[in-house]
Amino acid sequence: MNPYVFIAAAIGACRYGIENELEPASSYEGYAWADPDLPTIPTSLTEARDLFRASNVGRDVLGETVHEHLAVLADEELAAFERDGADWPDEEVSQWELRRYLERV
After folding, report:
1. CA dist list (Å): 69 to 14, 42, 58
2. N vs C: which end of the chain shows fewer Cβ within 10 Å?
3. CB neighbours of 12 closer than 8 A, spacing ≥ 6?
4. Per-residue model confidence as pLDDT tens digits over 1-54
């Protein structure tokens, strides 16, 4: 992810929380990773893209144009993944992701 987009999104999310008077969640004590009652983050690009596309907060924070552009980029990543014949891995990071993203670094 572009670091400037990340910073803008983080600042925008803070602004959104302040303007909407959102209360932060209480601190968690214990081993959160093992708690099945806590919400989880998406486990695939498909799930993340779908949640992002449906996010009114993302649309408000980033603006309609940037929000849609990032959703289309996720569509293109999924298409490349499928076009290259990659499979969802059993490991946390697939060999396809290592090849695709490390070449950009």
Report:
1. 22, 20, 12
2. C
3. 61, 62
4. 678 989 999 999 999 999 999 998 888 898 988 899 998 888 877 898 999 999
Residue 24 region by backbone torsions, left for phi larger than 0, else alpha for psi between -120 and 50, else beta: beta
Contacts of residue 52, defined as CB under 8 A and 6 or more positions apart, other chains included, come to 58, 67, 70, 71, 74
pTM of the full predicted structure? 0.74
Q: Label residues 76-93 b or e (16+ Cβ within 10 Å = b).
A: ebeeebeeeeeeeeeeee
Alpha helices in 1-105 (DSSP H): 3-19, 45-53, 56-62, 64-83, 95-102
